[in-house]
């Protein structure tokens, strides 16, 4: 009887762990603003990929120019974002790909991740990202 209970207990624990893993693999919404005046709005959805200790997220982004100097409607660009959050997600390191250019972002968590995005041959620009 003890062997049956132990086997059942292990099976229940394994099923609960699997359900938790699947439930934890939900997507997250990413919203942000970049540029000196916050003239680029970022929106996207990323999916979780568990790799080792860190959770890695990746997904498509849409960048929309919301600055006042748009003349014929807002300019939009498609891109992709990849980032990892450790167990203590006080810092984000991300890679952003837009128009074939790979940029890097490093930010610290306050009420959002705030930092600078660096692209080749361009000055760094401020970037604020909220992950929901």
Question: What is the strand and helix layout of this fold?
Answer:
Blueprint lengths: L1 H23 L3 E7 L5 E12 L2 E12 L10 E10 L5 E8 L2 E9 L3 E6 L6 E7 L1
Question: Notable features of this structure?
Answer:
alpha+beta, Lipocalin, eight-stranded antiparallel barrel, 8 strands, 17% helix, 54% strand, disordered N terminus
Summarize the structure.
This protein is α+β, with helices and mostly antiparallel strands and 132 residues long. The protein is 17% helix and 54% strand.
Descriptive report:
With 132 residues, the chain is α+β, with helices and mostly antiparallel strands. Helices cover 17% and strands 54% of the residues. The protein has one helix spanning 2-24; strands at 28-34, 40-51, 54-65, 76-85, 91-98, 101-109, 113-118, 125-131. Strands 1-2-3-4-5-6-7-8 form an eight-stranded antiparallel β-barrel. The protein is globular and about 45 Å long. 18% of the residues are buried.
């Amino acid at each position: 009887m003890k062997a049956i209970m132990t086997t059942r207990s292990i099976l229940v624990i394994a099923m609960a762990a699997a359900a938790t893993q699947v439930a934890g693999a939900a997507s997250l919404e990413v919203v942000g603003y970049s540029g000196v005046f916050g003239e680029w709005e970022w929106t996207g959805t990323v999916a979780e990929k568990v790799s080792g200790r860190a959770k890695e997220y990746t997904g498509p982004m849409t960048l929309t120019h919301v600055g006042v100097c748009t003349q014929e409607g807002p300019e939009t660009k498609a891109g992709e974002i990849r980032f990892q959050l450790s167990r203590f997600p006080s810092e984000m390191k991300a890679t952003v790909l837009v128009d074939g250019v790979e940029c890097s972002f490093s930010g610290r968590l306050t009420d959002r991740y705030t930092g600078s995005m660096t692209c080749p041959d361009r000055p760094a620009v401020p970037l604020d990202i909220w992950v929901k």
